[in-house]
Write a structure and sequence with these properties.
- This protein is α/β, with parallel strands linked by helices.
- It has 2 domains: 5-43 and 282-383, Aspartate Aminotransferase, domain 1 (Alpha-Beta Complex); 45-279, 3-Layer(aba) Sandwich (Aspartate Aminotransferase, domain 2).
- The protein contains 13 helices and 12 strands.
- The strands form 3 sheets. It has a 7-stranded mixed beta sheet with strand order 2-8-7-6-5-3-4, with helices on both faces. A 3-stranded antiparallel beta sheet has the order 9-12-11. The protein has a two-stranded parallel ribbon with strand order 1-10.
- The longest helix has 23 residues, at 280-302.
- Belongs to the class-I pyridoxal-phosphate-dependent aminotransferase family.
- Keywords: Aminotransferase, Pyridoxal phosphate, Transferase.
- This is Aminotransferase.
């Protein structure tokens, strides 16, 4: 029988590494897993307690396709509080994780054959979803010279028309950010050229420079921008599968229609419990998580000379360290496989994020505790020392 060509997308390698690490753990090995971008703490107590209450007495039937009104209102208040941006709750679509948000946004905004640009290295699901939908992905090679982020100069250098641009700040796998001025330049360029800007902001809140101004593309909705966000990272609610879109007016009705047909509505339990994430207790728990990531990040930056990695991306935000390990003489896939096999540490090869230069890079997630990160670095340093023996 026929299998659709759109289904032939590469698997997400990090999931394969995670499975291998879990298999080793099941066999009794002590494996340190720093390959997945998943906070180790899980949802805050206030969210979990609200879920318990809902399970015993709550209405967990279908919500509106765009999400429960109470949650959409809470998200709108979040934008006013954090960014001083007024967002009409009618422009907010609650989604089944940010993954569901990207699918809905891409379905609503792009046709088969449309050309959509994004940074390389970058999150592979952008590319795979777009190609599965019949779009042409235009990779922008973004290295240390642009802090691994796209610029207007990248866009001006392209041949042919463009229909969309995906920007992530802080980015996966690099952790680098687009500052407010650069985001404004990108948004203005997109508006002038009729290009749909899609801004991945799922790591907002996870930053380390107290003076950093984290900008949101929600300021540019009238220019056609789309914002994607999630409860998975800042609020550590990965398995709850809860995200949201902030939409320009022209995409609200299309996303509403698509959402109702694709999934009817996001998970009701996660939606109603998710409101509690915006409580003082919910924000406090999230801030405490960021403090843990900051401690792990500081440890990593202090020990970079021991690691000996080069071209390390500035870890402005998120919880990743992305660096070049090619001085080892191994490609990143072999490097990660041997590290897991010989030292019991799981990292992700850069080939997941960059098909051209990723064979040189690896990604380390420091979403675990500082104690786990410290032990992992000890193991990596000891193991690397054996490579030259």
């Amino acid at each position: 029988m026929k299998v659709a060509s759109r289904a032939h997308v590469p698997p997400f390698a990090v999931m394969e590494i995670l499975a291998a690490a879990n298999a080793r753990r099941a066999a009794g090995e002590h494996v340190l897993n720093l390959c997945a971008g998943e906070p180790s703490t899980g949802a805050s107590e206030v969210v979990r307690q609200r879920a318990v209450e809902l399970l015993t007495s709550g209405d967990l039937g279908y919500t509106e396709a765009l999400g429960a009104p109470g949650l959409r209102a809470a998200i709108a208040t979040h934008y006013r509080t954090w960014y001083d941006v007024d967002v009409d709750p009618a422009r907010i679509a609650v989604t089944t994780g940010s993954s569901g948000g990207f699918l809905l946004a891409f379905l609503a905004a792009f046709d088969v054959g449309d050309r959509v640009a994004l940074a390389r290295p970058g999150y592979p699901a952008y590319t795979n979803i777009l190609r599965a939908l019949g779009c042409e992905v235009v990779e922008l090679p973004c290295g240390p010279e642009s802090r691994f982020q796209p610029t207007v100069a990248h866009l001006e250098a392209l041949d042919g028309p463009l229909d969309g641009l995906v920007v992530a700040s802080p980015a996966n796998p690099t952790g680098t950010m687009v500052d407010a001025a650069s985001l404004a330049e990108l948004a203005a360029w997109c508006a002038e050229h009729g290009v749909r800007l899609v801004s991945d902001e799922i790591y907002h809140g996870i930053t380390y420079d107290e003076g950093a101004v984290v900008a949101t593309a929600a300021q540019y909705l009238d220019g056609g921008a789309v914002v994607v966000n999630s409860f998975s990272k800042y609020w550590a609610m990965t398995g709850w599968r809860l995200g949201w879109l902030v939409l320009p007016d022209d995409l609200v009705a299309p996303v509403d229609a698509l959402a109702g047909n694709v999934a009817l509505c996001p998970p009701a339990l996660a939606q109603h419990a998710g409101v509690a994430a915006f409580s003082p207790e919910g924000y406090a728990a999230a801030r405490a998580n960021v403090e843990r990531y900051a401690a792990s990040r500081a440890l990593l930056l202090e020990r970079l000379p021991e690691l000996g990695w080069t071209h390390v991306a500035p870890a402005d935000g998120a919880f990743y360290l992305y660096g070049d390990v090619s001085s080892s003489g191994l490609d990143s896939v072999t490097w990660c496989a041997r590290l897991l096999d010989e030292a019991g540490v799981a990292l992700t090869p850069g080939t997941d994020f960059d098909p051209v230069d990723g064979h040189r890079f690896v990604r380390l997630s420091f979403a675990s505790s500082p104690e786990v990160v410290r032990e992992a670095v000890d193991r990596v340093v000891r193991w690397q020392a054996t490579l030259g023996a």
